[in-house]
Design brief:
Bound molecules: zinc ion
Number of strands: 14
CATH superfamily: Ribonuclease Z/Hydroxyacylglutathione hydrolase-like
CATH class: Alpha Beta
Number of helices: 9
Number of domains: 1
Distance between the termini: 21 Å
Radius of gyration: 17 Å
Strand content: 25-35%
CATH architecture: 4-Layer Sandwich
Shape: globular
Structural class: alpha/beta
Strand order of the largest sheet: 6-5-4-3-2-1-14
Length: 263
């Protein structure tokens, strides 16, 4: 069975782990090696356990630590041609260029790279398969395109972006240009967009949703919970909240129903 954990989630750094008994994949790394060496052991992971790093796009909260962590882990790095063209992975020795919307295998895990609307050169997000279990990671997108909705049907577990509350963003301290970027079609998902996606997935919604990439300035767990808790109770979905400082602990689709705030 696939399991999912996060080292940290938010605009100051993202790093997510997907693993089976044989294979450990790190998705993005916005943290320096010294931080990873503190946080990975808290999840029972040694840096050398990481077999591969998948990059979603070149924004620094996702790519900032990739080259150094790949070197420390001795891991291959996978990224789209566009992400590689950003130059942010030039220091990586073992780099595999992938196509958007392609599928490939790392160890015993099948990976789908899914095109998302975001303001980067060739951004993708990922879906993972092992046996009958399926895990999705979906952050950093401005809206849920029909392609995205189709691609994330039937996941057991989904790490989903609940970036901002529109009203908090509107009233908050960001300059106007940044407010437009964040809320635009190539920015980030707001709470309502993410909730609407889960509703639209209906019977094919995940059994466990991890709310992630929650803005510390323009959102709060309480605001997300206001929208998500009724839906979770209705659809019998378990909710976990990922934090910037702690991410969340190892989670599988066998986690029981209900609402949890355990990080
Ligand atoms: Zn981000
Ligand atoms: Zn981004």
């Amino acid at each position: 069975m696939l399991r999912l954990a996060s080292v940290g989630s938010g605009s100051k750094g993202n790093a997510t782990l997907v693993a089976t008994d044989e294979t450990t994949i790190l998705i993005d790394c916005g943290f320096p090696v010294r931080e990873m060496l503190v946080r990975l052991p808290q999840l029972g992971v040694d840096i050398s356990d990481i077999d591969a790093i998948l990059v979603t796009h070149e924004h620094s909260d996702h790519i900032g630590g990739v080259a150094a962590v790949a070197k420390a882990a001795g891991a291959q790095v996978f990224a789209t041609h566009g992400t590689v063209a950003s130059g942010k992975l030039d220091a990586v020795r073992s780099l595999v260029r992938i196509d958007s919307d392609s599928s490939f295998t790392i160890g015993d895990i099948e990976v789908n790279a899914i095109t998302v609307p975001h303001d980067a050169r060739e951004p993708v997000q990922y879906r993972f398969h092992f046996g009958a279990s399926c895990v999705g990671v979906l952050t950093d997108l401005g809206w849920v395109s029909p392609h995205v909705l189709e691609a994330y049907k039937g996941c057991d577990l989904l790490l989903l972006e609940f970036n901002h509350d529109l009203e908090m963003l509107r009233r908050g301290p960001y300059p106007a240009v940044l407010k437009r970027r964040v809320s635009g079609d190539f920015g980030h998902l707001n709470n309502e967009q993410a909730t609407t996606m889960l509703t639209a997935l209906g019977d094919l919604a995940p059994r466990v949703v991890i709310a992630g990439h929650i803005s510390e300035q323009n959102n709060s767990v309480d605001r997300v919970a206001e929208l998500l808790t009724p839906l979770a109770e209705q659809q019998k979905v378990k909710i976990i909240y990922a934090t910037q400082t702690q991410g969340f602990g190892w989670t599988t689709s066998e986690s029981s129903g209900g609402v949890s705030r355990v990080a």
